[in-house]
Specification:
There is one protein chain. The strands form six sheets. Strands 12-15-16-11-10-18-19 form a seven-stranded mixed β-sheet, with helices on both faces. The chain has a six-stranded mixed β-sheet with strand order 7-6-5-8-9-21, with helices on both faces. It has two domains: about 280 residues, 3-Layer(aba) Sandwich (Aldehyde Dehydrogenase, Chain A, domain 1), CATH 3.40.605.10; about 190 residues, 3-Layer(aba) Sandwich (Aldehyde Dehydrogenase, Chain A, domain 2). By secondary structure, the protein is of the alpha/beta class. A hairpin with a 5-residue loop joins strand 13 and strand 14. The protein is built from 17 helices and 22 strands. The structure holds NADP nicotinamide-adenine-dinucleotide phosphate. The site of NADP nicotinamide-adenine-dinucleotide phosphate has 28 residues, from helix 9 and helix 10. NADP nicotinamide-adenine-dinucleotide phosphate (NAP) binds next to helix 9 and helix 10. Its EC number is 1.2.1.16. GO terms for molecular function: succinate-semialdehyde dehydrogenase (NAD+) activity. It comes from Phyllobacterium sophorae. This is Succinate-semialdehyde dehydrogenase (NADP(+)).
């Protein structure tokens, strides 16, 4: 038994998940070193897992390479059927998956259930898309030749995922890769490897052939990353995480001109214009800012509110924020769980301190809760200036800075004044303004009169330093396909 009672007591079918340490291939995971996974709400030990190293990754790559030909040669229907079985199994055990997620990551159980449903939706979407890989024929410039394009799997994919959405980030990468005919080596985040382990355990039951899905548990992300980027048998790296690590991986991939898909950090503006429905904007801001305790890459990071509606918005929003309850995600009354670790807590405390020194007013919250643990009060700060750290950096926590503005054109320029370009939101009703602002924002995704926009059916991804490529939708499948041009002459 590698999973402790602190976790199994939350599960309906503990026997399925009690030995998550053995999910990586036994021959590969020869590791004797182990690392521990803790519940961030309680500090309880949840599991001890093999701490795999670069040598283990290299063996996994060899296995994946041997499996690539067989998996790529299956019909689209056969690959789709296996993805469907996996989808079905995950849905059948969704309550256990949600409990594992809440235990290792801390998010409220209702949010964990919604994440598992979202993860399953990716499997469903790409089980369907697997059957829709099309080539094309081209009108040739001369009659003695025919020209066409076929699509083929990229090959072995190395995938690295973060801790904030430990199930949906895995599904969003792996399902299109498998649908396209690629095989995968996945390294989930050190803090949240258990949901990924549980997903892989059920993948075995779904019937993926040996070597198609390979799991690497590791506490040293950099050693794993270096091997994945430098091993020539890995054809593509798909990474979700910070821009800082993305930059490093991009450099490591450059020697071999390896294909990359990167989903990186953000600094989302949330703009409320004076023709907006203020109540709807308040609800949207609560969703966009406080989901997952503000630890999402698309979290509203800077709230710009036009002067005419500023005071009404600030008042109503503050009231809603003060009422959000913080605590253990297994408590059904809790809306905000813990932060993932002390480092995250320290960053938010530093942002609050910096804002107060520079003239910000705390309207609610502002402090950590208790002397131990990583709980932080949901916080609203007004009188925020663009020179403050909260206006410039990704806070990644339950802290909402409100910036007052007058000029509608100027606010768009300010919103765009960042190296990031992942998500933006705005509330307005004038149709001309809606189109102008939507087109002017330099972001990969724009939520208009909504605070929530992620969907398996839509392309998710960023401009500028927020990433390269898109995940989800039909575009997410293309990222795992090579285009091959065939020219048939002498006809
Ligand atoms: P992170 O530090 O970049 O870590 C992400 C993953 O990369 C983890 O699995 C981590 O492993 C691994 N890693 C760390 N250093 C590495 C290295 N040198 N080489 C290879 N892998 C390495 O990011 P995070 O703090 O977990 O996640 C938060 C960030 O992710 C935020 O910036 C957020 O905006 C971004 N994010 C973006 C999206 C998106 O779709 N655009 C979605 C979610 C999150 P270890 O855990 O072992 O360190």
């Amino acid at each position: 038994m590698t999973v402790t009672q602190s976790l199994t007591r939350h599960l309906k079918n503990p026997e399925l998940f009690v030995d998550l340490a053995s999910v990586p291939d036994r021959n590969v995971a020869a590791a004797t070193k182990r690392f521990s996974v803790f519940n961030p709400s309680t500090g309880e030990l949840l599991a001890e897992l093999p701490d795999m190293d670069a040598g283990d990754v290299s063996k996994a790559i060899d296995k994946a390479r041997s499996a690539q030909e067989q998996w790529g040669a299956l019909t689209a229907r056969e690959r789709s059927d296996t993805l469907w079985r996996w989808h079905e199994l995950i849905l059948n055990h969704s309550e256990d998956f949600a409990a594992i997620l809440t235990a290792e990551m801390g998010k409220p159980l209702a949010e964990a259930k919604s994440e598992i449903a979202h993860a399953a939706a990716y499997l469903q979407w790409y089980a369907e898309e697997a059957n829709r890989i099309y080539g094309e024929t081209i009108s040739a410039p001369s009659n003695d030749r025919r020209m066409l394009v076929i699509k083929q799997p990229v090959g072995v994919v190395g995938a690295i995922t973060p801790w904030n959405f430990p199930a949906s980030m895995v599904a969003r990468k792996i399902s299109p890769a498998l649908a396209a005919g690629c095989v995968v080596i996945l390294k989930p985040a050190e803090q949240t490897p258990l949901v990924a382990g549980a997903m892989f355990a059920l993948a075995r039951m779904a019937g993926f052939p040996e070597g198609v899905l390979n799991l690497i548990y590791a506490s040293e992300g950099d050693a794993v990353g270096r091997e994945l980027c430098s091993n020539p048998n890995v054809r593509k790296i798909s990474f979700t995480g910070s821009t800082e690590v993305g930059r490093l991986l991009m450099r490591q991939c450059s020697d071999q001109i390896k294909k990359i898909s990167f989903e990186l950090g953000g600094n989302a503006p949330f703009i409320v214009f004076d023709d907006a429905d203020v109540d709807a904007a308040v609800e949207g801001a609560i969703q966009a800012k406080f989901r997952n305790a503000g630890q999402t890459c698309v979290s509203a990071n800077r709230l710009y509110v036009q002067s005419n509606v500023h005071d009404e918005f600030a008042e109503k929003f503050t009231q809603r924020v003060c009422a959000l309850r913080v605590g253990d995600g297994f408590d059904p009354n809790v809306a905000i769980g813990p932060l993932i670790d002390d480092r995250s807590l320290a960053k938010i405390e530093a942002h609050v301190r910096d804002a107060v020194i520079k003239g910000g007013t705390i309207r609610c919250g502002g402090n950590r809760i208790g002397k131990s643990g990583t709980f932080f009060e949901p916080t609203v700060i007004t009188e925020v200036a663009s020179t403050m750290r909260i206006a410039q950096e990704e806070t990644f926590g339950p802290l909402a800075p409100i910036i007052r503005f007058d000029d509608a054109d100027q606010v768009v320029r300010e919103a765009n004044d960042t190296v990031y370009g992942l998500a933006a939101y705005f509330y307005a009703s004038n149709l001309k303004r809606v189109w102008r602002v939507a087109e002017a924002l330099e972001y990969g995704m724009v939520g208009i009169n909504t605070g929530r926009m992620s969907s398996e059916a839509a392309p998710f991804g960023g401009m500028k330093q927020s990433g390269i490529g898109r995940e989800g939708s039909r575009h997410g499948l293309e990222a795992y396909l090579e285009m091959k041009y065939l020219c048939m002459g002498g006809l």
